Amino acid sequence: MKLDLSGISSFISQAALEPWLSKAQTALETLKKGSGAGGEMTGWESIAALKPAVQDCKTYAERLSEISDAVLVVGIGGSYLGAKAVYEIFAPPDKKCEPIFVGNTLSGAYYERVIKSLEKRDFSVIVISKSGTTTEPAVAFRIFEQLLVKRYGASEASKRIIAVTNPGGGALRKICESKNYPMLTIPDSVGGRYSIFTPAGLLPLAVAGIDIDALINGAERSSELNSELAVQYAAARQALYNSGKKIEVVSAWEPNFRWLGEWYKQLFGESEGKDGKGIFPVSLELTADLHSMGQYMQDGERTVFETFLWAESASSITVPSAEDNFDGFNNIAGRKLDEVNRVALDATKAAHIEGGVPAIEIEIGHLCANNIGELLYFFMLTCGISGYISGVNPFDQPGVEAYKKKMKQLL
Ligand code: PA5
Which of 43, 34, 25 is nearest to 228 (CA)? Predict the structure, then answer.
């Protein structure tokens, strides 16, 4: 993985960056020692400690996929977005067993469609909730548990349900204990949005046939190699934020990264947006969004900085030539599509810098599970460091509770 900060140099001098680098270094040490705010929630930092759960995930995934055409994955927020993001990047076109993500909405219309789509398919349920008391997944679990029992009977249904929850206690654990549903755990020391390398992320991905060994090995490599890069990225983000660039736009050049953008927004938004502070996270999918948000990026309010995400693909597709050449594109006929995509990135980056948008670039190398694991871990480490620089606890989410409380009162 490579981090290129040259696109911020005309906005922040090296001298201005230095104090932020030193703050970021201190923040990294605090995080590693577990001595900062929320230090008891840094269990995600040691990938070696999470690895033993991989085999359990594979075993249960095999069991479920043997008897299911679809697996309902019930969860929201951190109990959803990591698996969804990686699944959307690698979803095999010839899916044997399709994960269907539910528990992330209260829309009846959505569930009508999902239930209809299950009519002719065998299905199972993975329910993921640390607390077990989050409204959306709790309601969805009731719906799909009852559907399973109706279809297969209680005894067969109990073979088609597996939960991922707290090791210590909680509502979901109680349900599972009373009905004999098997459980895998998210360690107490790992919060939802940092849980992609626990069974919360790995179990649904294993069901979908994604190489979870490669994913977690990439994360482990990242933990060994990328601390310095995370320090630099976190320092750059905070230096830019404190110079008035309040919004980070992560612009990815793969359409399949759209959900990775959602995961990034949750990770950073929920970790940094508190105490009246926080870089506002936005994500774009390019080149598509150049034809929507491109105008704003080039010419709108100058409070944004942009982080480009680039992955190399092995595709050999080229631009075809056309006999008539009415559209005038024969000048690029024969060139690889990905080469044209890269030129689009370089051109966009240069134009946006000229337009007043500082640019950071992260190159992940080849698009494979191993490199995505590396990237996800790098983002999580950066997020912890960046949160500590700005003086917030990056591992809690007190603001999320406010709406939950009000909704419970209103209901
Ligand atoms: O990152 C977080 O901690 C949150 O987004 C949670 O994952 C989300 O609120 C779901 O919580 P739970 O797993 O308890 O249902």
Answer: 25
